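Tip: read the tokens left to right.
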């Protein structure tokens, strides 16, 4: 089964301009994400899809593949769908360039789930961690049925409660798996669906197209970078994780 990992990256983010090139512990964020993907598959199967020459130059300097895409792409998944027209693969993995804390194991779980569930869109999710505020509108919350199929995803606090807020909520982790037909149907609409517009969550377009979305629990507490202040949170988490790894290594020795 041929695999392609595509990382969409645009420079003109409304909330955080130039986000993909912002450095996290000295490494541009989009390159840090690509390096994680390199633990899953070889560089020849990893592509950064962008409309910005600045990003393309950094990607080439770090010897990753770059695909130039239209600046008119409505979402990251539209960009992935456009890039997929230039790459032949059985499974396309969309890894968002603003998820620098995802693990290679998480990506592998998504790939395995897609191979096993060919008729489902696959998307990651995890519990909202202690350092995040579930009320925050930048965090898409997910609700699933007993089969772990997506019922709804919202920036609002869901599921709601008449009495008191829940102790834990689940959030989306932006690792997706598609086949070519699914990506073509997404882009073919040529507009954002009604719910997608309201929530500003692109996976809702698949939802409204009648596609089943299977949610896969990831192991790590990923923190998406939506605002400049999120960089410090991610760096702190990386340094904490590094200390934990060193302690384990010392115990083994």
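Filled-in amino acids:
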């Amino acid at each position: 089964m041929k695999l392609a990992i595509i990382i969409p990256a645009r420079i003109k983010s409304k909330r955080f301009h130039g986000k993909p090139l912002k450095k996290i512990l000295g490494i541009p964020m989009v390159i840090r994400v690509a390096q994680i993907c390199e633990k899953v598959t070889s560089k020849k199967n990893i592509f950064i899809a962008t409309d910005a020459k600045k990003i393309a130059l950094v990607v080439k300097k770090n010897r990753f593949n770059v695909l130039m895409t239209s600046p008119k792409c409505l979402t990251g998944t539209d960009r992935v769908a456009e890039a997929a027209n230039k790459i032949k693969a059985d499974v396309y993995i969309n890894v968002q360039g603003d998820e620098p804390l995802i693990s290679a194991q998480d990506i592998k779980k998504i790939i395995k789930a897609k191979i096993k569930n060919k008729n489902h869109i696959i998307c990651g999710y995890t519990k909202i961690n202690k350092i995040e505020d579930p009320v925050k509108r930048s965090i898409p919350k997910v609700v699933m049925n007993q089969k772990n199929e997506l019922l709804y995803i919202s920036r609002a606090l869901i599921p709601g409660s008449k009495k008191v807020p829940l102790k834990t909520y689940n959030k989306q982790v932006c690792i997706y798996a598609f086949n070519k037909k699914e990506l073509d149907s997404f882009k073919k609409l040529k507009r954002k669906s009604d719910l997608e517009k309201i929530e500003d969550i692109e996976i809702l377009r698949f939802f409204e197209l009648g596609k089943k979305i299977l949610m896969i629990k990831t192991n790590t507490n990923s923190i998406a970078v939506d605002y400049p202040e999120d960089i410090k949170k991610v760096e702190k988490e990386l340094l904490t994780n590094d200390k934990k790894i060193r302690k384990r290594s010392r115990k083994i020795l």
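Residues 91 and 179 are 5 Å apart (CA to CA). The mean pLDDT is 91.
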